[in-house]
Design a protein that fits this description.
There is one protein chain. By secondary structure, this protein is mainly alpha-helical. About 60% of the residues lie in helices and about 5% in strands. It contains five helices and two strands; from the N terminus they run ββααααα. It has a two-stranded antiparallel sheet with strand order 1-2. Helix 1 runs antiparallel to helix 2 and helix 4 runs antiparallel to helix 5. The radius of gyration is 18 Å and the shape is elongated.
């Protein structure tokens, strides 16, 4: 009979967790903060994908979710990671950004969040993505981070912003007071 693996091991009861490789670190370690925020972003992406009707967009976001696991695993490695994000992932994201940008009118004002549930979820994903990017940049001050991760996270927030605009379908509420 196979014994089931338990999710509750008790090893983190003292406020530590294991990195990939086995080193135990405090749960508020910068590396844990970074991949934890990636995990949070992925949970929000899961909420976003169920609010979108367009199948190609759903599939694209599901691929982004897979990329978030790759990035999270890379950040959780204490040494050089076997988990890498290829240039193709960045190229696909840039192509999606370009396609969205071409379909939207130029923007000169800030957009008030909301409008539709899907657009609000995309905006929430964007803000968590930006926080993840900041966490990764802080981590980079202490240890090397693959450049593709930084590029991907920066582009992902741009994609999510443009996706929000597309989901609003021209019904954007603009902030009345320009920031100059």
């Amino acid at each position: 009979m196979n014994k089931k693996a338990s999710i509750s091991t008790g090893t983190g009861d003292n406020g530590t967790t294991s990195l990939i490789g086995g080193t135990r670190v405090p749960k508020d370690n910068q590396r844990v903060q970074a991949y934890g925020t990636i995990d949070e972003l992925n949970a929000h992406l899961g909420l976003l994908v169920v609010a979108i009707d367009d199948e190609p967009t759903r599939k694209f976001i599901e691929q982004i979710e897979h990329n978030m696991f790759t990035i999270g695993c890379s950040l959780a490695c204490e040494k050089d990671s076997i988990y890498t994000l290829g240039d193709q992932s960045i190229d696909e994201l840039q192509k999606a950004i370009d396609t969205l940008q071409e379909s939207l009118p130029a923007m000169r004002e800030f957009i008030i969040p909301g409008g539709t549930e899907a657009a609000a979820r995309a905006n929430l994903c964007r803000t968590v993505c930006r926080r993840a990017e900041r966490e990764i940049i802080s981590l980079q001050r202490k240890c090397p981070i693959p450049q593709n991760i930084l590029v991907y996270m920066n582009r992902l927030s741009d994609y999510l912003f443009l996706l929000q605009r597309r989901l609003l379908n021209g019904n954007e509420k603009k902030w009345e007071k320009p920031c100059k």
